[in-house]
Amino acid sequence: MDELATEKEAEESHRQDSVNLLTFILLLTLTILTIWLFKHRRVRFLHETGLAMIYGLLVGVILRYGIPATSYHNKTPPSCSLKEGPVSTLLLNVSGKFFEYTLKGEINSREIHNVEQNDMLRKVTFDPEVFFNILLPPIIFHAGYSLKKRHFFRNLGSIITYAFLGTAISCFVIGNLMYGVVKLMQVVGQLTDKFYYTDCLFFGAIISATDPVTVLAIFNELHADVDLYALLFGESVMNDAVAIVLSSSIVAYQPSGANTHMFDASAFFKSVGVFLGIFSGSFAMGAVTGVVTFTKLHCFPLLETALFFLMSWSTFLLAEACGFTGVVAVLFCGITQAHYTYNNLSEESTKRTKQLFEVLHFLAENFIFSYMGLALFTFQNHIFSPIFIVGAFIAIFIGRASNIYPLSFLLNLGRRHKIKGNFQHMMMFAGLRGAMAFALAIRDTATYARQMMFTTTLLIVFFTVWVFGGGTTPMLSWLHIRVGVDPDQDPHKTKQESAWLFRLWYTFDHNYLKPILTHSGPPLTTTLPSCCGPLARCLTSPQAYENHEQLRDHDSDLILNDGDLTLTYGDTAITANGASGGSGADAPGGSGWSVNGKRSGSTSEEALERELDSREQELLSRGTRLVFPIEDHV
Amino acid sequence: MDELATEKEAEESHRQDSVNLLTFILLLTLTILTIWLFKHRRVRFLHETGLAMIYGLLVGVILRYGIPATSYHNKTPPSCSLKEGPVSTLLLNVSGKFFEYTLKGEINSREIHNVEQNDMLRKVTFDPEVFFNILLPPIIFHAGYSLKKRHFFRNLGSIITYAFLGTAISCFVIGNLMYGVVKLMQVVGQLTDKFYYTDCLFFGAIISATDPVTVLAIFNELHADVDLYALLFGESVMNDAVAIVLSSSIVAYQPSGANTHMFDASAFFKSVGVFLGIFSGSFAMGAVTGVVTFTKLHCFPLLETALFFLMSWSTFLLAEACGFTGVVAVLFCGITQAHYTYNNLSEESTKRTKQLFEVLHFLAENFIFSYMGLALFTFQNHIFSPIFIVGAFIAIFIGRASNIYPLSFLLNLGRRHKIKGNFQHMMMFAGLRGAMAFALAIRDTATYARQMMFTTTLLIVFFTVWVFGGGTTPMLSWLHIRVGVDPDQDPHKTKQESAWLFRLWYTFDHNYLKPILTHSGPPLTTTLPSCCGPLARCLTSPQAYENHEQLRDHDSDLILNDGDLTLTYGDTAITANGASGGSGADAPGGSGWSVNGKRSGSTSEEALERELDSREQELLSRGTRLVFPIEDHV
């Protein structure tokens, strides 16, 4: 009979799990249906993520107040004492039978009574690791994978400045302001538990990750200025990575200064070291895995897509297994894959992978936002502190301002195409907080400080997504930002920000990396000096000779930016094609091309740019294929 | 310091988890690369699933013998005693701090020492529920979703006979034979623990689920006879559902006969009741959800795909929440969605959903098979009993034979197009066991009997997949089964098995269900009697009038099978079109069409079939669009 009771309980628990998941799925379904309605009627004031939160809130209210506490589970769980520390596996001996238990986590002494309170509410609370290990990776990967925009690369310098320097500034400004707020709370007597300086810095780190998904969706729909789009999108993608590494290095900073929790120079430098180590490690790992994934499984799109999916996921796991940050690795893996691997996929597979990650990203994002809405009512350890909340709202405003305005001023000193005032205001306005801030906040809600942070983060996300997200369209017109821009027709098309460093890298990438790693780009035999002929022929994919005409649009996007390279490529391509009509890949031809390439490369850059400005317009209108009139040759 | 140690252990455990998952992903990656190589070189003797098993075996050997037991975890977990029964949540009090533990399962007293042995091997052992709740649903759904073949519907009667009656016969034959084997083992003294009659029946149920995925892949590639393909595929899809419900009703049978574990008429009928209840409940739930998912979100393929995915998953969860079998519900949901919802999706979404489920199915299937290979070495409680294994091989042979040959004989009495001898031999040969048998066997490995079954099932899967799977091509030529058949050109095209029951249902489905549930099919105004005019107009989608020319190929496939309906539809379409050229949907026209439909319906069936035989050839060659010469009318 005892066995039967256990079985019944297990069955009941399984059923409860199904019901909980079902709740979320129905929430998502409802969200999708409403989004469709909104898109159909062109409603723009509420984005799908905002909508998901509202539905989540409603269901949260129902779960909290609408359903009577189930009596079945309303008994205090039995406890048992041990002298040793907590272990991951525990055996329970019930009259000779052994049962295995696994550690779920520490419970606050205050919460022990909660355990018995309402099992239902506790059940809909997910393990925070789910967010990090299952929901964030597809979102971040998709962001990296869809980043491949020439406007992004053109603004790379500014984006990196905002993301790295800006996020660090924002983190420290917010951290210090919040420390002031905490001191004030102490004076007023609103603080009932410990709240350290490092906690404030941690809050600064988690709340500095912006997520302007709502704003960007509207930008996309209205075809707002592409440079502004690139700046915002690039910043938000990169600062997620910065925030996650920043927060974990602040946590690493804590133990050594456990007694003071105040500023300590050596611990600070250790944190900086941890930051640099984790970040560069994750970056390198992501980039390397992204590059390694170069598939040649043409003709079998299913295999290609599956392989692609597995490799991205294995990047995440590999980074986690090595102690790096999987999410950051996945981001750079996505960027690298979009840049290199994408060119190796068959036409069919590029579509498939894009759609696959699109669906995964869509589901994960909406799930997180609806869970946020739900968490406001079902999470059991909220600490609402009005002073802290108001202080946080002011602090994030000041933090964002001290990121955008000073850095824009500095960047404008170096930029040929300045970031105008209205762009700066828009970037200020688009500082929404989203999935990453939430995931970082929910990761650890064990202490008083963390619980207060979690509650505040939740409210900040709600407010920014609804108010700033909803106000995007009016703001755009108020700031006189152009909409309805065709990305290919914007006036500042060329050479704006192709700084020498970027240009150098780009030349290297285009002439050497792309040919080695992908089937696209010029054959290596054309770009390497003639002495490396045999090596070049060995490394060049046979398709590189054949597939000239298949040079993809996104490639040409980049190439058109840089007239110098267009010419190199153009020359090469035509010659290569002429030769391949004969024997495919012959050594004399190879050395001949490289001379060609060099000649054009040595021409004065400025002169070329002037010449190409007009040529480019022509190329654009005729499309890439006409640059290489292969049909005439073959 | 204690806290730090715990944190370190948690981190170590997280890292270990990542490494384990990474192992599987690398296994899958390796499998994909090798499959590609095989496909490239047209190797047919080893299918991807067989390959995945081999790689799994290799990794299992390495894990078992290659890696020294990690010393970190090599301590016996502490145990603690309680008087009450096992509970799902346990609190552990370690010097004032509380930790929450969740129940993982019962541990055999023999295994307590295993717990301390090798943590690594235990870690790569997944929770069996993962197979049921995560890996099987996409496989089964995909099977249901890709079932939409006219050859399937044409052979529906035979397929259902093999799947239901055949699986039940096989289950009882195997169960009884195995009971004899067990008795023999008792006599010889090879049996060291209890092994009941119900255990034997349970073994019969789990091992009766066939999975000829290898055979079908080769059929597909060689274009073998389509009817044989339909019979095999249909049987294997359906008997998975039968086996899962059968095994759970045998488990339900156990408690009431707990003392005897022998045959008991009342308990038997109770089991039959449970079987019918669960099966019909799951069937109804799947069918209803499949039908309900009729989306109208055209223009937003992403939303459509996401919704489609969510609805299929929610079917699974809903069924589980209601105590039915999620896997069975998902199967029928897939079949229904393919039949109805598919027609409502936009062109883009049909592709997307197909590809999405294809990838999921591919990954899940290969994961299960590679896990099987791994489990042979890493699973710690194998019981290899030579007598039981040899007995099982003989029993499944006899069980399969007593399913196929007698039922084929009976079916041939009623079939116009007989199932020939060589087809029967091929069906006999194609009785491979796969994912479902494994998932059912691993679900519960607590007792001695179940562990022996698990080991035997694993060996049967290995043997059948490698030997029967690899021998498919020689077997096909040995049995003189035609290959290279164009499915549209096979000689027995019409009226073979359109039994009156099926015909009746089909007419109902085509004339009423399809128009109500999808945008395709004839407008309801044409099929309902004239008195229902207003209702018909209200239920008919406006697209039904417009989209006549979009009648999809798979629809026409079915229609062409059934001359009677083709004519009805043909008339209707042309008339409808003529009318819609005028005012779109007017009542008098509606009644006129229904008269038309009725007239052709009342013509003698035999005469029509003769007439249509020649007409059909013409239709086939001209394609569906020409049946409705809409261009001429509009």
Question: In words, what does this structure look like?
Answer:
- Chains A, B: InterPro entries: Cation/H_exchanger_CPA1, Cation/H_exchanger_TM, NaH_exchanger, NHE-6/7/9.
- Chains A, B: Residues 579-592 have a biased composition (Gly residues).
- Chains A, B: It is a multi-pass membrane protein.
- The structure is a homodimer of 634-residue chains.
- With 634 residues, the first copy, chain A, is mainly alpha-helical.
- Chain A folds into two domains: 128-255 and 266-479, Up-down Bundle (Na+/H+ antiporter like fold), CATH 1.20.1530.20; 500-620, no CATH class.
- Chain A contains 28 helices and three strands.
- In chain A, strands 2-3 form a two-stranded antiparallel ribbon.
- The model of chain A is unreliable at 492-497 and 547-634 (pLDDT under 50).
- Chains A and B meet through helix 1, strand 1, strand 2, strand 3 and helix 12 of A and helix 1, strand 1, strand 2, strand 3 and helix 12 of B.
- Strand 1 (79-82) of chain A pairs parallel with strand 2 of chain B, so a sheet runs across the interface.
CATH class of the largest domain in chain A: Mainly Alpha
- Major protein interface: A-B, 84 and 84 residues
Tell me the number of structural domains of chain A. 2
As an assembly, this protein is homodimer
Low-confidence stretches of chain A: 492-497, 547-634
Calculate Rg of chain A over CA atoms.
28 Å
Q: What is the CATH fold-level name of the largest domain in chain A?
A: Na+/H+ antiporter like fold
Structural class of chain A: mainly alpha
Overall geometry of chain A: globular
Structure summary, number of beta strands of chain A: 3
> Helical element count of chain A?
28
The main β sheet of chain A shows up as: 2 strands, antiparallel
Strand content of chain A: under 5%
Identify the CATH architecture of the largest domain in chain A.
Up-down Bundle
Give the rounded overall mean pLDDT of chain A.
73
- Give the N-terminus to C-terminus distance of chain A in angstroms: 83 Å
Helix content bin of chain A: over 70%
Q: Major sheet of chain A: order of its strands?
A: 2-3
Region (Disordered) (chains A, B): 579-618
Membrane topology (chains A, B): Multi-pass membrane protein
Organism (chains A, B): Myripristis murdjan
InterPro entries (chains A, B): Cation/H_exchanger_CPA1, Cation/H_exchanger_TM, NaH_exchanger, NHE-6/7/9
